[in-house]
Design a protein that fits this description.
- It comes from Spodoptera frugiperda.
- Keywords: Membrane, Transmembrane, Transmembrane helix.
- The chain has about 400 residues and is mainly α.
- It is built from 12 helices and 2 strands; from the N terminus they run ααββαααααααααα.
- The protein has one domain (about 35-395).
- Helix content is about 80%, strand content about 0%.
- Helix 4 packs antiparallel against helix 9.
- The longest helix has about 55 residues, at about 225-280.
Length: about 400
């Protein structure tokens, strides 16, 4: 009987030990370099405080978030979103301008989409960091790593406290200030932190790509560089493009959301300002008070903020496209040399072929390209509809 029992227990010990071995292997594979931890720590810390973290970094290892963290985030957002709507409606006279309801609605939709994307792309978020780590092991950017980390801290705090400052000044002039609404605003700032996170990843990829281009240009023509080194250079270039493709997959929905948000909210802000001016013009004895001037000024700040968001996203994507073009031009330049070795020529041809065969530019859910033309198109469309609103209001 005891022999049978021992065999029965031993039957369950093997899978348990195997599980520990597999767990150790996965943990070792997902172990992060110290520099990579320092680069991503500011964003992970801030998003964790806002219950919107993209992954879990613990003991130098990165893993996807657990079910508990998603349930907790769901409960927090289930409280934050209704509270934000209730506080906004209770402190704002929506009957004066029905367009005012657009402001909290767009923000709540943005927060919900951010939460959904964090679940859908939980594996891709980890994959992006691991690909960047593979690039970091082979391409040396140690001279700029401290500068990158410092700017990561600066940008993440600027995104949060800049948003809070605009909120406090704006709503003090327009509505009654509410601490509960300010508390909710701290969680909504994760949308801006997500934007800054994406931009800083683009900056990091550009640093790697520029260093790769410098390495290609500095290769001696007559140097007997082996096939293995050329394969390593090609692998690094492919990893950079792979990281950008993962970034596109993670960011395209939020780019579309930010674009719609910028256009819709800016028109709503303009409509509110026009409505206030119409009321003042009808009541000629009513003076244009100091809070009214503040409201008009802060409305302009809000409009500029949302246009700046689109501009920043587009400009940094365009900079990455230019960096890819420079890498391709460097390969073409080296191939033009008659003394170019066979290994070099094979490397450069492969890089040029893969660059031209792949679609580098990011598209927002297949609707439009994210490049330097996008903010100009949005500004033109906004100006067009602004004239229409002014015509309906004063003609």
């Amino acid at each position: 009987m005891w022999l049978s029992l021992s065999k029965f227990l031993n039957h369950f010990k093997l899978p348990n030990n195997k599980w520990h071995i597999e767990s150790y292997a996965v943990k070792f594979k997902n172990h992060l370099h110290k520099d990579i931890c320092r680069i991503f720590y500011p964003f992970n810390l801030m998003l964790k405080l806002q219950f919107a973290s993209k992954y879990c970094i613990k003991d130098g290892c990165i893993t996807t978030n657990g079910v508990t963290s998603y349930i907790l985030a769901f409960l927090v957002f289930s409280f934050i979103i209704p509270a934000h709507m209730i506080v906004y409606i209770s402190t704002t006279d929506i009957t004066q301008s029905y367009v005012s309801i657009i402001f909290p609605t767009f923000r709540c939709i943005g927060l919900i989409i951010t939460f959904i994307l964090s679940i859908v792309h939980r594996c891709n978020n980890v994959l992006l960091v691991l690909i960047i780590q593979d690039i970091h092991r082979c391409i040396d950017i140690s001279k700029t790593i401290c500068n990158i980390i410092i700017w990561n801290w600066i940008t993440v705090f600027s995104a949060v406290f800049g948003d809070m400052f605009i909120y406090v000044v704006f709503y003090n002039a327009f509505t009654r200030f509410s601490y509960s609404s300010a508390f909710c605003e701290a969680f909504f700032a994760c949308i801006d932190v997500d934007l800054v996170y994406g931009i800083r990843i683009l900056v990091l990829l550009m640093k790697y790509l520029d260093a790769w281009t410098v390495e290609v240009l500095s290769m001696s023509v007559n140097e007997g560089i082996g096939k293995r080194y050329c394969i390593l250079l090609l692998k690094n270039y492919r990893n950079i493009l792979k990281a950008f493709n993962v970034y596109k997959k993670l960011s395209q929905v939020m780019v579309l959301v930010r674009t719609i948000n910028a256009f819709g909210r800016n028109l709503a802000h303009l409509q509110n300002t026009i409505q206030m001016l119409k009321v003042k013009s009808c009541l000629q004895r009513t003076p244009f008070l100091y809070p009214d001037w503040i409201y008009c000024a802060m409305t302009s700040v809000w409009i500029m903020k949302y246009l700046t968001v689109i501009t920043l996203q587009s400009v940094y994507c365009e900079k990455f496209y230019i960096a890819v073009d420079k890498a391709e031009a460097a390969c073409i330049q080296r191939m033009m040399n008659v003394n170019c070795s066979k290994n070099h020529r094979r490397l450069f041809k492969t890089v040029i072929r893969e660059t031209r065969s792949s679609s580098i530019k990011m598209r927002a859910c297949g609707l439009f390209n994210v490049d330097v033309i996008l903010p100009l198109s949005i500004m033109g469309l906004f100006a067009h509809y602004s004239f229409i609103l002014l015509q309906f209001a004063f003609l």
